[in-house]
Every structure is written in C-alpha cells, then in structure tokens.
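Support request from a user on the community tier.

User writes: "When I paste my structure tokens into the form, the page sometimes reloads and wipes my input. The last time it worked, I copied everything first. Here is what I submitted, just in case something in the input itself triggers the reload:"
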C-alpha cells in the first residue's frame, strides 16, 4: 500500500503530542486551583487582590476564587464538601473549626510541605499562630493571621461627648462607664438612637472577659472535659458582660439587633464602640462619615484577649496538591502577606510583615494598628476539640438568653455546662 509522505509526517508529529497531553494535564505546575473564601464584598476584594498578585507571578496556575458571602453558609458548604470528597483545593478555616476535619483525616498535613519550602519556614511565623493549627504533633494548615479581639471606636462620637479616647490600660469600670455615657436618646422621644457598644452574645466574646476576671473557660485548658462557667470568677465576668445589656441597655436588645445589626450601626455612625477582630478593617476603611480607631480590650484582674486566626488548608481530596501548595506558599510568603496586609484584612502571621509598614502604616486606618501586636502576649486560644463548634453554639444559645433578659446568669451558665457535657471527648 502506498503511504502518503505528508500523512506519515503528520502522524509522526501528532501521535507523540497526543500521548503527552494527559501528562501535561496532570502536571501540578500547570493546573487550575480552586480557592474558597467567605466574607463581605470588601473581604472578597482583598482576596482577589492576592489572587491577581499570585497569577502575575505564576501564570501557569489558574486560581478559581469561590466566594461564599455568609460565614455560616461557608461552614456548612465546607463541611459538606469535605465529607463528600469534593472540596475546593485551598480553603480558609478558623482554628476553632479545623479540628473536626483534622480528626476525620480530610486535611493534608502541611508541615512536610513547609519543611521543604525555600520561601518560608516555621520560625518566620509567630508561635501563637502556629500552635493552634498543630494537631497530634503535625502542622495541619499554614496560618495567614493572628488577630486579637479589639474595641473599634468612633472618634467623632467620643469627641462630641467630650470623652477621652480609650487608654491602653483602661479597666472594666472605664469600659462600662464609657458605654453608658455614649448611649443616648438624641431626639428626646424615649428611644435610644445611639448605642455605646455592640458585641454579640457568644462564647468567643465572653471568653476574654472570663480570662480577665481570672477564670478559666474549661476545667483543664490542656485536657478539657467540661466548660467551667459557674466558678465565682466566671460568674462575676458573666454578670459584667450581661449587665451591659440587661442593666445598662448600652447594647441593642434582641428586637433592635434584629432590626439592624450592631456592625451596621457602627458603620453608619450610630454606635460608638464595636468589638471585632481585624477582619472588619477592609469594610470599615470605606467609612467616610467619621474617623475611627482601635483600642485594646479593657482589663480586670488580668489582661487578656482572644485569638482569632485563619489558615490556608489543603484538603486531602485535592487532585492538584502541588499546585495548591504553590499558592499557599506564595500567600504566606513576604510578598503574599504584604499584599493581603495592605488591604487591611489581616494581622500578618509572618513576623517580618506584621512589623513592617505594610501593616503598621499610621496613614492607613486604623492608625493604632500597633494595638494588635501589643496584645499578642495576652491572647489566648480556645480549646482544640473536634466538637468545639457544637459546644460553642450551645453555650452561645444559653448566654444569649441571659443577655436578652430571658433567664438569670446563673441558670444560663449551669445549663450551658450541662448541655455541652456530652460533646467533650467525642470524636477524638
């Protein structure tokens, strides 16, 4: 049979190429990586900035940014996807939430990846950010931030009331009196128009007050078997927390909170102080109607705040682990952390970036970003338990009842302890 020379040449070219195509598709350095985040539009924009910077450096890796606006929806989606074996390739998980996934074996330990990195090393990070993501001796995820809880305050409302801005060593008494003084009926109709304080009635908001009072949140911080909410110190802290609502009315009640959330009130200028971590900064930087800044949490017998930290985690089910790690590595390198720090979103976990103008620039709100670093010696982490999310939710339900005057502090704390008892030691 006569073979056409052109056809033979064409086959010679095409066949090897076709054989190489599957290999190219599997090449981890040429891949599409999905990255799932949550947050409001300003937060999403911050992560888009990071993705854009990464792709300028790594055009061979396409990043698909998946945005879930609601934090609760994000947690549900994450749990469902990990259980089904269909997660995004890179996910952000708070240290309070990742233990359940680590216990299930659905996360790829990242310690071995970090040990081989030429861009970053464990010693580059604050220890307070590394330790919470260490599970059974293995570093599971790479922390992107380590924010403390701080007090955001409206400088204009303080000025209008003739009040000094919060001092670094202010006390519970100072905090309470300030909230009372800034809770006002501005038009004389008998209804509060300006609240002094906004804070959610949750266990993560109560915890720092417990520690400040010298109480422990759990019976044994290293090996917890129960919540510890009915000690004299814990009850004194819980009463102080609840009295800001029930006795003072310095925070919106349940009906008022349902009508307009506290964070929205702070943003629109009708709330003087609001408790939050660093994550609110990109949104607050869009405020043009007033000036704001941050102050540390008030002090009681001890100085304490609570750790807020998220990390980039790599699901074990990912089929592009090497490419996903390339993105995680970049995101936590000086270049990547500088990009995200400039957006205001994080207190960088990378020491060199946290202590640089990228984070501490006083020309960018908040002017007093140093507060976040000054609080580092005093931040404490919550227990790492697979069922901590359940414990936190149930205890929050009971605290909310007391916070809105539906039950006593004593009954709420005891009921929280009793209802959560079954979740300790489960799933480990």
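"...and here is what came back when it finally went through:"
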């Amino acid at each position: 049979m006569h073979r056409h020379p052109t056809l033979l040449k064409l086959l010679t070219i095409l066949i090897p190429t076709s054989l190489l195509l599957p290999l190219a598709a599997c090449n981890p350095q040429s891949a599409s990586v999905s990255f799932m985040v949550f947050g409001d539009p300003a937060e999403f924009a911050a992560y888009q900035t990071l993705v854009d910077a990464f792709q300028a450096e790594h055009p061979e890796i396409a990043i698909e940014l998946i945005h879930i606006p609601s934090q609760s929806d994000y947690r549900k989606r994450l749990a469902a996807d990990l259980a089904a074996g269909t997660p995004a390739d890179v996910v952000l998980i708070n240290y309070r939430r990742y233990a359940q996934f680590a216990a299930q074996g659905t996360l790829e330990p990242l310690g071995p990846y970090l040990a081989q990195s030429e861009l970053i090393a464990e010693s580059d990070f604050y220890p307070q950010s590394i330790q919470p993501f260490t599970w059974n001796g293995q570093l599971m995820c790479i922390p992107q931030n380590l924010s403390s809880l701080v007090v955001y305050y409206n400088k204009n409302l303080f000025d209008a009331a003739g009040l000094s801005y919060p001092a670094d060593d202010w006390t519970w008494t100072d905090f309470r009196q300030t909230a009372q003084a800034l809770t006002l009926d501005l038009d004389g109709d008998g209804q509060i128009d300006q609240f002094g304080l906004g804070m959610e009635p949750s266990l993560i908001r109560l915890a720092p007050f417990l520690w400040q009072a010298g109480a422990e949140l759990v019976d044994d911080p290293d090996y917890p078997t129960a919540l510890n909410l009915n000690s004299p110190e814990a009850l004194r802290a819980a009463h102080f927390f609840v009295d800001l609502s029930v006795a003072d009315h310095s925070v919106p009640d349940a009906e008022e909170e349902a009508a307009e959330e506290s964070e929205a009130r702070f943003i629109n200028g009708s709330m003087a102080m609001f408790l939050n971590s660093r994550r609110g900064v990109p949104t607050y930087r869009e405020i043009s109607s007033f000036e704001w800044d941050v102050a540390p949490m008030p002090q009681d017998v001890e100085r304490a705040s609570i750790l807020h930290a998220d990390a980039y985690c790599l699901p074990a089910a990912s089929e592009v682990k090497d490419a996903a790690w390339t993105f995680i590595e970049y995101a936590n390198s000086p270049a990547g952390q500088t990009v995200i720090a400039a957006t205001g979103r994080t207190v960088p976990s990378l020491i060199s970036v946290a202590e640089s103008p990228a984070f501490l620039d006083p020309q960018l709100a908040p002017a007093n970003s140093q507060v976040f670093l000054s609080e580092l010696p005093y931040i404490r982490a919550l227990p790492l338990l697979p069922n901590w999310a359940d414990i936190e939710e149930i205890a929050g339900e009971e605290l909310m009842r007391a916070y809105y005057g539906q039950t006593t502090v004593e009954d709420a704390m005891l009921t929280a302890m009793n209802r959560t008892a079954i979740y300790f030691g489960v799933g480990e």
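Agent notes: The reload is a front-end session timeout and is unrelated to the input. The mean pLDDT is 92. The chain has 20 helices and 13 strands. Escalated to web team.
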